[in-house]
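Give me structure tokens for this 573-residue protein.
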Amino acid sequence: MVQVHLDLSNPQTHLVDVRVQIESPHQHQKVSLPGWTPGSYLIRDYVKQLEGFKACQQGLERPFNRSAPSTWLIDADPDRGPLTLTYSVMATELTVRTCHLDQDHGFLALAAVVLEVDGHRWQPHRLTCVLPEGWNAFVPLPEDSTGCWLAADLDQLIDSPIEAGPHQAHRFSVFGLPHRWVTWFSDPADEAWFFDRFPRFFEDVEQVCLACCRLMGQSAPASADYLFVLHLLDEGYGGLEHDDSTVLVYGRRNLEASHGYRKLLQLIAHEYFHQWNVRRLTPAELRPIDYQHATVVPTLWFAEGVTSYFDQLLPLHAGLCSAKDYLNDLEEDLSRYMLSPGRQVQTLRQSSEEAWVKLYKADAYSASNQISYYLKGAVVALCLDLHLRSHQSCLAAVVQQLWHSHGRHRRGYQESDLFSAFEAAAPGLGARLQQWLTEVDDPDCSGYLLDVGLALEPEMSTHPWTGMTTRLDGGRVLVQRVQRHSPAERAGLMVGDELIGVAGQRVAQPDQISPLLRAEESQPLLMARRSALRELALRSDPPKPKRYKLVPVSNPTASQQAGQDAWLQQRAG
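Here you go.
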């Protein structure tokens, strides 16, 4: 047994005091703090927030040394009883994968807090918390009669985020299984605003959950007791999945947009669906999890891309938006994909494999050399679904089959298992999928959409193409992005350059640039780099598409109309 005690009673310090007690330590006991949290593929070096590490046995300090930045080797005496480790964690970063503690609330991603005790990972862990007066703790773990939470092992403990504060939980059920919803409003005034504007919110959440179960062909959720945590901030967007919970971040400003509430429901659907796809139907490379090192996972496109495709459909299938709303959202994603130059450089499999070093470390040049496995994965999922539907199947049916063969028993799948499942559902699809994963050519999305009566058409810009975007910063017009193989790159422009004049006219706003350009004619640019003024010649290319639109075909055939109806109206399972 490993006992973990967390003290949040001094939130004004932003420090979480931690005590880890190892009942039966080894003589040379190794302990390590995880470097990342499952579901967020980036080494985060949580140890940078840890301070004051000490090891004691029977009240006496034990010597230790550090064998790695986040690993300690402790000289313990197995005959002297429990070994107690104490340290503090600075909690000042409010994301779904870090820790935050102040006078209003506390949130802990336990990968950033709890040590992995070598030799004890698969033993039970017992969690206790000390909270400020009037606070409650919300933890997706079973609680005993003494107020302690019990985890079967370290993995279950780390997979259990903690939200704490004076707020309360809303309880509801999905197919008879208990669910809790907890919201922390960064501005307390937003609570009344939110529920006044969205009075049916909890009913809508329940419908999304039911739609997820139906999609998987299940009569109950995968989790027997589920916890939602939402941090409603002024701005923000994101989520992180767990076996029995999810943590969401969303911005009030997003909700004020016409599509903002629908996007929140899609985020909820995405993370809730992960209790099947990712958390239990899991890539073999993540069984077991290596908390210290990055693990290459070539199938993240399936884990996240397929989930992203379904998250837009689920509110539609729950009856919470119209088919037109769904197609507008799909159009937006397809447009983003088609306008992403990195899709012609990085394959979808490479995007999955390089998540650790690219997706979560994006910079101003990333758009030119990478494509998100969320985005292209969703585009490929759309093509898979429409292809399968032309063969009397659908993507949901394949995911259900994989759930029965791998997910239900937590048997990790290999990429070859995915190829086999798609090949079995539609002969030839496995080989086609492999091409989509390993080549930079676009899948025939337009052709598949025509099968359901929709045309993907470009909407052309009215201005010549330069391949650069600019922003206003302190009264200066700065180059924000330069696409590879673009006129701006050929002219020698770099991110951070200041544009002062175009074609002899001074510019003070980014929107003043395009009207001064003429396609296939050189335009003199006056720019500054490191305070030196230079003049460059920019020869713009003809206009390119500024977006793509989904347009119903004129006079659709009966087959096209039937295909669209089945796709948009079908309730899988």
